[in-house]
Design a protein that fits this description.
With 429 residues, the chain is an alpha/beta fold. The chain has two domains: 33-205 and 390-406, Rossmann fold; 221-384, Rossmann fold. Helix content is 42%, strand content 14%. The protein has 16 helices and 13 strands. Strands 3-2-1-4-5-6-7 form a seven-stranded parallel sheet, with helices on both faces. The longest helix is centred in the first third of the chain and has 19 residues, at 101-119. The radius of gyration is 21 Å and the shape is globular.
Length: 429
């Protein structure tokens, strides 16, 4: 029997020091009339997707950035700040045990109030569909500040799934000024809701930029190497599941189907990076604990997780991010959901939806797991798929558009010689 629980990496980083512990005057004060972009994030996926944009903005000498972390994620967030070289100017530290989305939203908005009044940003930039993103967008609306929304236009079609993310992203779209859509399909969704065409830009998804950065610049840590060694010589399944609508019976039935599949095939192993949510941990321990060739591990840092995905035979997940990462890495993916706001992953042949989360379908998951062993046509579609989420230039695309909208000219020569994106992207990358 094999159950491996790996401790968090010592390289995981530490949260910034409390603001009151910094020397007087250490916070940057407005000293120029350059337009300032206030970027707000609070979770690991937001950092991964905003990092390429922030890097590109930093090359523009006639723009300033001011970075705020809500602290919605804590231990999961700070390693990524170190990895991507992001300096946080203020940390709101909103995280509290068992808090509700209402409480998070209220605390983020309250924390942003004095920052906005002091920094007077020309634009507030948010990403995705988190409670932090919603709070940042509402703050901009209340203060009459333009809002830029990265990864705009994602829609599942069901306002309650995923919850609360689907409604968060719809609400952000109602108050955003600039909509940075990853795909032409996202643009079409926004147009169908009445968003002005001139405010929509198809830029690709910055997650592709971050993946390429990781694969080029980061090597697997000893922790990741140890984990890959455990699955050496096996067909490796990488599993993640954490969505609220899957908690309880649905998640447990999915885990049982996976457990039975691994038991039946000695050449298969599985790694489950277990989300810290107590509901997920309880289900993982109950259904997968102590199983041979199924390894339950603490959340991995992003470079290690990317390398794990790169070595996988099959991905099984309810994560939206993995639906974007799978086409980039050309890995087959079973999506543990009945709908998706990323239909491009399905359309390009990489992903397959498993079924209805309200009526768990373990037989459907079992059938698809077994089909993955024999369906050579699916394997070929995955191998030859064209990535629908872009080519790795999304961060530069978004920064170029922001520069043009806020400054109205090419970057100053001091901006590291990086040209601004000059064309308004509407229907294509």
């Amino acid at each position: 029997m094999s159950k491996v629980t790996l401790r968090p990496s010592k390289e995981s980083g530490h949260p910034p020091q409390p603001l009151d512990s910094q020397p007087s005057g250490s916070l940057r004060q407005p000293t120029t009339r350059r337009p300032r972009v206030l970027c707000v994030f609070g979770t690991r996926p937001e950092v991964i997707k905003l990092a390429p944009v922030l890097r590109a903005l930093k090359t523009r000498a006639d723009l300033e950035t001011f970075v705020v972390s809500s602290g919605q994620h804590t231990s999961l967030l700070y390693p990524f700040l170190d990895l991507f070289g992001i300096k946080v100017d203020e940390d709101l530290r909103v995280m509290q045990p068992d808090q509700t989305p209402n409480q998070v939203c209220a605390r983020v908005m309250a924390g942003l109030e004095p920052i906005v009044q002091r920094e007077k940003p020309a634009l507030i930039l948010v990403q995705g569909d988190t409670t932090t993103a919603l709070a940042g967008a509402l703050t901009g609306f209340h203060h009459g500040i333009p809002v830029g929304h990265v990864e705009a236009g994602l829609r599942s079609g069901n306002p309650l799934s995923p919850f609360p993310e689907e409604m968060n992203r719809r609400l952000v779209s109602r108050v955003a000024t600039h909509h940075f859509a990853a795909t032409a399909g996202n643009r079409a969704s926004l147009l169908a809701e009445g968003v002005p065409e001139a405010s929509i830009f198809v830029t690709g998804n910055p997650v592709v930029d971050s993946l390429q950065f990781i694969l080029k610049n980061a090597q697997p840590s000893p922790r990741a190497a140890e984990l890959l060694k455990l699955a050496a010589g096996k067909k490796l399944i990488v599993l993640t599941t954490h969505r609220r609508e899957s908690f309880g019976r649905v998640m447990r039935q999915h885990l049982r189907a996976l457990r039975d599949f691994v038991r039946q095939h000695e050449d298969v192993a599985a790694v489950f990076a277990v989300h810290p949510n107590p509901n997920v941990r309880a289900a993982a321990e109950a259904e997968l604990g102590g199983q041979d060739r199924i390894h339950l591990v603490e959340p991995l840092n992003y470079p290690d997780f990317v390398h794990l995905l790169q070595h996988a035979w099959l991905l099984v997940s309810d994560s939206g991010g993995i639906q974007e990462e799978a086409p980039t890495l050309r890995k087959p993916l079973l999506v543990l959901r009945s709908n998706t706001e990323r239909p491009e992953a399905v359309a390009c042949g990489v992903a397959i939806l498993v079924g209805d989360e309200n009526q768990a379908q373990p037989e459907r998951l079992r059938e698809l797991l077994h089909a993955a062993l024999t369906d050579q046509a699916w394997a070929e579609r995955v191998r030859t798929a064209v990535n629908p989420f872009g080519d790795g230039a999304s961060g530069e695309n978004i920064a170029g558009i922001l520069h043009r909208e806020l400054v109205g000219s090419l970057p100053l020569p001091a901006a590291a010689g990086v040209p601004a994106s000059s064309a308004r992207a509407k229907g294509a990358l």
